[in-house]
Write a structure and sequence with these properties.
Chain lengths: 244, 645
């Protein structure tokens, strides 16, 4: 977000309940409408078809929930940010709640590039009733995956098939316990060089597993040795403060 | 009466666009079903993306929910993948608002706007657990209602629908609610027959089971009421003043992309141009314009509530709205401060595409402009009474191309009455000339010619005309394609087989119902979708019922024969329609009756109504009835705001 003349802010929001079935792109359009409904003073791009300066963070798959989604938007003028959050929530679909708004420094790194790790709460279920997806069985599979030195996986990107090793992207897995349909675990997955998706992790744990409820619980920006919450990483002290 | 959501949710992981089934749109309601109140499930029998924007359904949704004695929820046809899992898991059709089972509603009301969705209506009823045949339903089954333009020939669906609402639904739904409410609260005395009989007493409501049809071989001998108090002819209902109905107040904003995805404000109903092929124009007379102030308010409030950045002023011919220039200019001025709202006028007539209007239309998500000359020659356009001259068309596209548009789409019909090959080739000539005009402005100028086979409709002067058969339609389309090969004009066409099937239902009688049921049982849903349409199902069904497709589709009707919809009145005198048919055959045109003397089609005199116009100033431009010389049309200077198309 450039922000040389405008006032960039970062918005954190959740996506829970039925709205999880709405795609990332459609959520973006809902935000655009919410900005208009609340008549927020937005900065617009130059050129013939001016658009508000909004950039979204990592996409969330249809069907997944989240406690931690982010977007950056540039305001044309400063305003009280606590009111902004509530105003947006009222204009957004049920299940999308703005939980934080902070001012950003100029030229803060874009969310999609800056985020390095995502934590997920994933429910594992058996693909068929005879598959054992109890915590004990899942733990055995998790241990095997963590013990492996490589985990090759075939991916197709833009028509080309490559073989990637996904083991380095699996940072941590913790089995929490049983759920109604199977087992719940927490997994911390890297987003670089390419994002490791929950579906890929589940498949690596076993092709006889399928996903139940999946929820993104944290996103982390990594800078050097530090691991920062996106609402903290590039915040400026106050919206009006600007280095002259 | 609980929500089926816990049983629906697990199905959504395996289907396309699961958000079709979750509801939660801005503007949606979750009404409490009070005991003794009448609950309506309003269903558009096509996919969510097509059905959600339907204004008629949204208007009734709001009106019914405002009543203390009624509630309304919505549903749309689930897609094929969802239908499959619903059936396998025994999940019935449900409302998207509260996920309540369709069978729990007092009324299931369908919007019928096209013949090829008829089989979807049957699929929806079956998914709801309601017997598809009206005679098989019991006291506990919902009452099945249908509204929309297709009800003006209701007979093909007469075996399935309990009550048709003919014309504007705003008032009759209230009256029907009172009748049904009284029956429910009275303990369903008299059973289904009693409530259906009472509904037949509501003006504008046609209850097919209250009538017997007699045949004389293939012909209809007559249709007669079974009770003396049931009307022999059902007159349509007409809302006299749109100002009394400022709906929708809270247009639904879908969470996923749908067609017409913008704020839509209806600026008038009815049409006075009198194009002879157009059922919509004929059956919605007289014209009732919404007052300009009310349009402005609805636009302002609508944009504020929805957050849309585009508003469309909708009607059958939007540039005909009196004072349209002032209205559009005013709207754009008001919105300027709010940052880039686009105003668009769909359904613009070529001859009314003027400076005033076009230059006000600002940034809109546009890929091209569409005009609908319909007939390829001036002679044929006089036959169909769409009095657009060639010069009108060239002037309009000159304006478009000169101001930055690169693509123009032209709609034409083939198979119009008196059509000869030179008329069809006239389409190619127009297209070539349009491209020539375009190339003077941009190398990338192109033109798409979109051709459909004409399907004659009930309540039009062409209702007696035999439709062109498949081979003839194909021949004409191929002739056009050959003539436009290797030009910058591309030809697209509607499948002639689909047009044929539409023709079976369009002027079908009650016997066609059994054909529709056979097509549905053979798996023929979503027939409006080209990937699912199959003519063989229709022809096999006709053969199995021993009905001749030629009798229904390609035969010319005679003046004295009884037509399947004679008992439904749109207000047009049959004499007028026949005379207009004869005038068509003689290539005479009729002027726009909003501004020129009345030619007594029957609607205004019979219903003691008149055209309601918002202003006394006729719109500028327009060959018909507004003072321009029809033979020359005059120069129509146009300047449009620049855009990159």
């Amino acid at each position: 977000m450039r922000g040389d003349t405008g006032f960039p802010v970062r918005v954190a929001f959740t996506k829970q309940g039925k709205v999880r079935f709405v795609s990332h792109r459609d959520v973006a359009r809902a935000f655009e409408r919410a900005f208009r409904i609340e008549a927020l003073p937005l900065a617009f791009t130059q050129g013939f078809s001016p658009r508000p300066k909004v950039s979204f963070g990592l996409a969330l798959s249809v069907g997944h929930e989240s406690d931690a989604e982010y977007l950056d938007v540039e305001l044309a003028e400063p305003m009280p940010l606590d009111l902004l959050g509530d105003a947006l929530t009222a204009a957004l679909p049920e299940g999308i709640d703005v939980i934080g708004v902070v001012p950003l420094v100029d030229r803060a790194p874009a969310l999609q590039e800056a985020v390095g790790e995502v934590e997920w709460e994933i429910e594992i279920r058996g693909a068929t009733p005879d598959v054992d997806a109890s915590p004990d069985s899942v733990t055995v599979r998790v241990d095997a995956v963590l013990a492996a030195s490589t985990l090759p996986v075939e991916r197709v990107r833009k028509g080309k098939t490559t073989t990637d090793d996904i083991r380095p992207a699996i940072r941590r897995i913790t089995v929490l316990g049983a759920s109604e349909g199977g087992t719940v675990l927490i997994a911390a997955l890297a987003t670089r060089p390419t994002s490791l998706r929950p579906a890929e992790l589940i498949h690596a744990l076993g092709p006889d597993y399928i996903e139940g409820r999946v929820r993104r619980i944290r996103q982390w920006i990594e800078r050097g040795d530090e691991r920062l919450d996106p609402l903290v990483a590039d915040t400026r002290i106050a919206l009006e403060a600007r280095a002259s | 009466m609980t929500s089926l959501w816990p049983r629906i949710e697990p199905l959504l992981a395996g289907v396309e666009k699961p958000a079709r089934y979750i509801g939660m749109e801005r503007g949606s309601q979750r009404p409490e079903h009070r005991p003794g109140s009448v609950s309506w499930l309003l269903v558009y029998p096509d996919t969510y993306e097509i059905g959600l924007p339907n204004q008629g359904l949204q208007i009734l949704y709001e009106i019914l929910n405002e009543r203390p004695d009624a509630v309304a929820e919505r549903s749309y046809a689930p897609w094929l993948d969802m239908i499959q899992v619903m059936r396998s898991q025994a999940v019935p059709l449900f409302s998207v608002d509260t996920h309540r089972a369709a069978g729990d509603f007092s009324v299931i009301a369908f919007n019928l706007s096209a013949e090829l969705v008829y089989t979807n209506l049957l699929e929806c009823l079956d998914l709801a657990g309601v017997p598809v045949r009206n005679e098989a339903r019991g006291t506990d089954d919902p009452i099945v209602v249908a509204g929309g333009h297709s009800t003006f020939n209701p007979e093909p669906m007469a075996c399935f629908v309990d009550a048709f609402v003919i014309g504007d639904g705003e008032e009759p739904v209230g009256e029907m609610t009172e009748v049904i409410g009284a029956w429910i609260r009275g303990g369903h005395i008299g059973g289904r027959e009693a409530v259906l009989h009472d509904l037949a007493m509501v003006p504008g409501v046609y209850v097919p089971s209250m009538y017997e049809v007699e045949y004389d071989g293939a012909a209809i001998r007559g249709l007669s009421p079974r009770y003396p108090d049931v009307p022999a002819v059902v007159d349509k209902r007409t809302v006299a003043d749109l100002a009394d109905w400022p709906y929708p107040r809270n247009q639904l904003v879908p969470l996923i992309e749908v067609v017409h995805d913008r704020l839509n404000v209806e600026i008038f109903r009815g049409c006075t141009r009198g194009c002879r092929f157009c059922q919509a124009g004929m059956i919605t007379r007289p014209v009732r314009e919404r007052p300009a102030d009310q349009v402005r308010t609805m636009v302002e409030e609508g944009l504020r509530r929805t957050g849309y950045d585009e508003v469309a002023l909708t009607s059958l011919s939007s540039a005909d709205y009196s004072g349209i220039d002032g209205l559009v200019a005013g709207l754009v001025d008001e919105q300027a401060g709010c940052g880039n709202v686009g105003v668009s006028l769909p359904s613009l007539r070529v001859d009314a595409f003027t400076v005033g209007i076009a230059s006000e239309i600002q940034k809109v998500r546009r890929t091209g402009l569409t005009f609908a000359p319909e007939g390829g020659s001036w002679r044929l356009r006089q036959v169909i009474n769409k009095l657009i001259t060639e010069d009108d068309l060239y002037a309009a596209v000159e304006g478009a191309y000169s101001q930055g548009w690169r693509r123009v789409k032209l709609y034409f019909l083939v198979g119009l009455p008196t059509e000869m090959d030179e008329d069809t080739l006239g389409i190619a000539e127009l297209a070539r000339n349009v491209v020539k005009v375009g190339k003077r402005h941009t190398k990338q100028a192109s033109c798409t010619v979109s051709v459909g086979g004409f399907v004659p409709k009930a309540h039009t002067p062409f209702q007696w005309f035999g439709q062109n058969g498949i081979a003839e339609t194909r021949r004409k389309i191929n002739m056009l394609r050959d003539d436009l090969r290797r030009t910058a004009a591309t030809v697209r066409w509607h499948d002639p087989e689909a047009s044929f099937a539409e023709g079976i239902a369009s002027r079908g009688d009650r016997r066609i119902g059994r054909v529709i049921e056979r097509v549905w049982r053979a798996g023929g849903t979503f027939q409006e979708w080209s990937e699912h349409f199959r003519l063989d199902r229709w022809l096999e069904a006709m053969a199995a019922e021993e009905l001749d497709p030629e009798w229904y589709v390609t035969r010319h009707r005679t003046e004295d024969e009884i037509l399947p919809w004679d008992h439904i009145a749109a207000g047009l005198h049959r004499d007028f329609l026949w005379q207009d048919w004869e005038a068509a055959l003689a290539s005479h045109g009729l002027p726009d009756c909003r501004w020129t003397p009345c030619y007594d089609c029957g609607v205004c005199t019979d219903y003691a109504l008149e055209h309601v116009v918002a202003s006394s100033v006729p719109p500028a431009g327009g060959s018909q009835g507004t003072g321009q010389d029809l033979t020359t049309a005059g120069a129509v200077p146009i300047s449009l705001s620049p855009t990159r198309a």
